[in-house]
Amino acid sequence: MGTGERNQEAHVPEGTTGATNRAAAAPRTAATAPRTLAEALRSRPDESLAALLRTRPDLLSPVPGDLTQLATRAGTRASVVRALERLDKFALQTAQVLAVAPDPAPYDAVRSLLAGDDGDPEIEVALPGALAALREQALVWGGDDRLRLVRTARELLAPSPTHPSPTGLGPTVAEATAGMSPGRVQEILQAAGLPATHDPVSAVAALTSLFTDRTRMAELLDSAPSEALTVLDRLVWGPPYGEVSADPPPPVRWLRDHGLLLPASARTLVLPREVALHLRAGRAHRTTEPVPPAVAPLREYRPQVVDATAAGQAFMALTTVEDLLAEWNEGGPAVLRAGGLSVRDLKRTATALDAPEPVAAFWLELAYAAGLLASDGEADERYAPTPEYDDWLELPPAERWARLAVAWLAATRTAGLVGEQDAKGRTLAALGPDLDRSPAPEVRHRVLTLLTTLPEATSPDPESLLARLRWERPARSGPEDLRSHLAQWTLSEAELLGVTGRGALTTHGRALLAPASGAVEREALGLLAAKALAPHLPEPVDHVLLQADLTAVAPGPLRRPLAAMLGVLADIESKGGATVYRFTAGSVRRALDAGQTASDLQAFLTDHSRTPVPQPLSYLIDDVARRHGHLRVGAASAYVRCDDEAMLGEILADKRSQPLRLRRLAPTVLATTAEPAALLDGLRAMGYAPAAESAEGDVLITRADSRRTPRRAAPVPVPDGPPLPDGTLLDAAVRAIRAGDTAATVVHKSPETAARTDGSLPRTSPAETLATVQAAAMTGSALWIGYVNAEGTASQRVIAPVRVEGGFVTAYDHTADEVRTYPLHRITGVAELADDPA
Fold it and tell me: What pTM did the predictor assign?
């Protein structure tokens, strides 16, 4: 659609569709102009009402009974504030102009206040669309000849001494002189060279006429001292109030005497709105922004470079999340009493991940949002992986990444807040309860969507991106506002996650951005993104290269079973394009504790190494295996048993065993009051390789992934206001509102009931009710009834009776848009309708 077509459509008043547009484009006449917002809503088509309820979903809870209730709810302060906060910069500026314009204001007056005396082609083009948006949201009603801003919005946006207007304008002459004595008003008229009048009203009108007459005002200002013009320059763009002493200087006195400054209090003067508009050349705003600022490109890359770079970062994201949860496999840090992770534990996690603390907090929150991490819910509550983590590990790499990306886009958890303080001065902790920010998903989605407006594989200029977001939501924006921070965090987090590469949106990142209203749709988008990412991820390898210095080099990402087993048998020494693992006595013992034997380990290395198993590594495995399990530790509170009495004597004689407080119970048994785990750690620190055993004497096999939380759902995002209604709900709501409005406004034949304007129910005797309903069932006419349900709730309804029998009437209920059966004894009264609503 071209610009001209958009402008023509925007001029069409609400309540027109299709072929009726041209007929409705004519201005409303005074006879047909709506007198209230409810009347304006009543003239709208169903599609327009549905659009209103879609843009302002708070009006749907609960569904209004009729259009009068809808109009009343649309004018409440909370609802209007929410609607104003969601306007773009130019629509908000248009509303601000309507708040300082006469009420009602003609279209030309609004355009003049926005464009000024010189006009502005961009404003001419954009204004119809801005007014259409305000009308759609029921913030403005009336035709172009009588534009009205809803009263609550006017109260919020109009200037006052306690609430300055964003326009910087002050009160009108009439408002500023409201408390002034008639004699003082006449003195101002005389000083301005105007003839005296007989009453204050005509005097104010004469002064207003002078200030709005460009020619006469120019002559008046030409006669002003130059210092007086300097004073006006300081006040013209606001704030319009200025403090003065009891004896003001001559320039200020001249302005006061001529009414160009009017007293607001004993020591305060104010610049009248009409004077300020003349000095501004008719503009209400210093800078009017009818066109959104474009997102400027920063640098352009080849698409292959962007996708490859992002794919490498996506793989690193998977590795980081796996490393994080592997650290917590046997149980992570304790949960703070107030919830979340302590500062010390966050530092430890950042050290383990070799990442800054803010980045570590991001990975923690990402795993939590994806449902891979949670608290275990025990008395001594700790964090641990969830069973969903094991399911996630079985997915292909691209699908694992997609699950993380989808969770990130929809999450209201905001990792960037970690370390900051809340309103009570408390530090916000990672995984804590106070990190939800409801605008986060919308901002993330909007930032990535704006990246699609740039040429493919082009990174944005961050400042231009922030300027665009501030234009789209100016009511909540500022240099340090939450939305700006969310946008900056989105850019950095998208790079960490691999949604962008080198700042540019990737092919798989674009696949995530289609509109999705539920978890199923988001999962489908995730699968599309995974399909786009998969070709760029490195293929897992099934081998390592063993070296004589007790290390193994993985030339790429390892297959899942190989990586899991090697992670138990060796310690990761370094990461990068090739991961280096180091074998130690402790790592080999860890594998033996997990139930492996020396022969199993030798066979595993032989099968998965492209180089022969070095002799030092074979000796290490055999040596640790020979000593492994020679000592047995159980509960006495703990004990050590060994067939070699000399070894037990050696342990007792060793000074390092003194903290364990061992004593000999038998030639082959030592006991202690320490816990079995502490005894195991103490003996291993002394260089031994003990094995734990059960009460039956069997060796206990420990697993690195033995600790899991109960199954838990991922945290539910905190909605930013009421949920958006779907099409089915909107259709049903519009039908219910229309039917209720019909019942409330229908014309009745009965003079007794027709005279009821207070909303009370019709009253007829049971015999009259039965006779009227039976007659309507025979003729097929509609009735207006009063009905009280079983809970005692009274309502008015319009019904078309079909059958009357057994004390019940079966009828088509126009209010509910369905056939219902009503007990006759619950009908308070009936009245015939002047016109059949069917």
Answer: 0.76
